[in-house]
Amino acid sequence: MSEFLSPPIWVNTIQSLVNMAQDLAAQPRVAVDTESNSLHAFREQVCLLQFSSRKADYLVDPLVLKDLSLLAPIFANPKIEKIFHAAEYDLICLRRDFGFSFSNLFDTMQAARVLGYPAVGLDRLLGDKFGIVIDKRHQKANWAARPLSKDQIHYARLDTHYLFDLRDVLEQELREKERLVFALEDFSRACLTDEQKQKSNGASWERFSARKDLSLRELTVISHLCKWRDKEAEKLNRPPYKVVMDDVFVALAKNPPEQRVDLSAAGLSEKQIKLWGDQLLSAIRLGAESPLVERKQAERKNDAVLRRLEKLKAWRKNVGLEMKVESDIILPKPYLGVLSENPPKSLDELRDLMKDTPSRADMFGPQILKVLGVKHAN
Q: To which H or E segment does residue 25 belong?
């Protein structure tokens, strides 16, 4: 596939936003993507929204246009299909930053997963299907920086420009394999979720608490180091790992230095020691003297639940191997917990628990009941 691409339309004024919204609102399908700055800021934000209609590609600058409420009716309109690639993270970011709600999605990555593709990245799919080359180096660019380079602009528009063609190819393959209904149910469930699974920049010391090689005193030291780092990272507006890496904190906690000269042994650079040496030593001393933190104990499921969970996992893995798909395509992760903790006593109960994916309940219901030990499952 080769074609001349006219420049994308840069949307950074109210009037250009109105014009774009009018075009998109009149379309049966719209392709969407976002770019964020998670690798370059303390609190990530959406820094660019890409849209494509059949007529044009648009790049929307939310750093200039603070109010994007004109787009809300498009995302929520069930008559307009929104085509994403790897929708989950985009939806999280769009909900978080703009409060959008969604209906009628088509996720080309999930479609490829349902089909059993071993590689489902957009670059790989576009390359295999259409011979299109995407330079993924820009994936980790600082999308909050302005102006964007010509290469960034080209990369951004390619993320949506070919989604219409990819969507149509994948839909046809889903029909041929009789798996379209699985994919459609997955798309619908993505619209329903309201979980905020956004990346937690500046995550607390509790991320370390599952490590068995750290004592409570060492965890207490790390907790004070994390508190200091979060404040510093927020002040500098950078991800915490770009202030001090986690493994350095572990080294500092295990062998607490007493003087600045000892800090380098933990892996700190001369620049870091010059900037923050005294603050780090202060946090370490505070952690050494403070009351011990408590580990958060994960809620332990009872043995019967764990046995059912393991049986379900083994069953879905085997079926996945037979159908040549990942195991979560057979039984999505949320249902593992639901079914193992509240095992249905009949097919009707199972259908109720799996009401958001009725096709899986119909296809696999008797097998699931048998795995759970329900009599007369057949």
A: helix 14-25
pTM for this entry: 0.91
Query: What are 155-212's pLDDT values in tens digits?
Result: 999 999 999 999 999 999 999 999 999 999 999 999 996 554 444 443 578 889 889 9
CATH of 205-289, one of 1.10.3210.10, 3.40.50.300, 1.10.150.80, 3.30.110.70: 1.10.150.80
- 157 close to 335: Cβ distance less than 8 angstroms: no
Q: Which two tokens stand for residue 293?
A: 């933190």
The three state secondary structure string of 129-186 is HHCCCCCHHHHHCCCCCCCCCHHHHHHHHHHHHCHHHHHHHHHHHHHHCCCHHHHHHH
CA distance 67 to 86: 25
How far, CA to CA in Å, does 355 sit from each of 185, 297, 307, 309? 10, 32, 24, 20
**What distance in Å separates the CA atoms of residue 311 and residue 369, rounded to the nearest whole number?**
11
Single-letter code of the amino acid located at 217: R
- Quick check: helix, strand or coil at residue 83? strand
Strand boundaries in 117-229, DSSP class E = none
> What is the rounded CA–CA span in Å between residue 323 and residue 329?
10
Tell the CATH topology of 9-192.
Nucleotidyltransferase; domain 5 (3.30.420)
Instruction: Write the single-letter amino acid at 325.
Output: V
- Bridge partner list, 49: 34, 60
User: Which residues fall within 8 angstroms of residue 96, CB to CB, at 6 or more apart?
Assistant: 196, 198
Give burial (CB, 10 Å; 0-12/13-18/19+) of 113.
buried
Cα dihedral 156→157→163→166 (10° resolution): -90
Peptide bond into 147 cis (omega under 30): yes
d(CA 225, CA 119): 40
As a whole number of angstroms, the distance between CA 249 and CA 232 comes to: 15
Residue type, 120: V
The residue type at 79: K
Q: At what angle do helices 216-236 and 270-289 cross, to 10 degrees?
A: 130
Amino acid at 346: S
User: Which phi and psi (to 5°) does residue 274 adopt?
Assistant: -65, -45
Express each pLDDT in 336-367 by its tens digit. Answer: 999 999 999 999 999 999 999 999 999 999 99
Tokens 């989604």, located at residue: 163
Q: Where are the domains of the chain?
A: 9-192, 205-289, 303-371
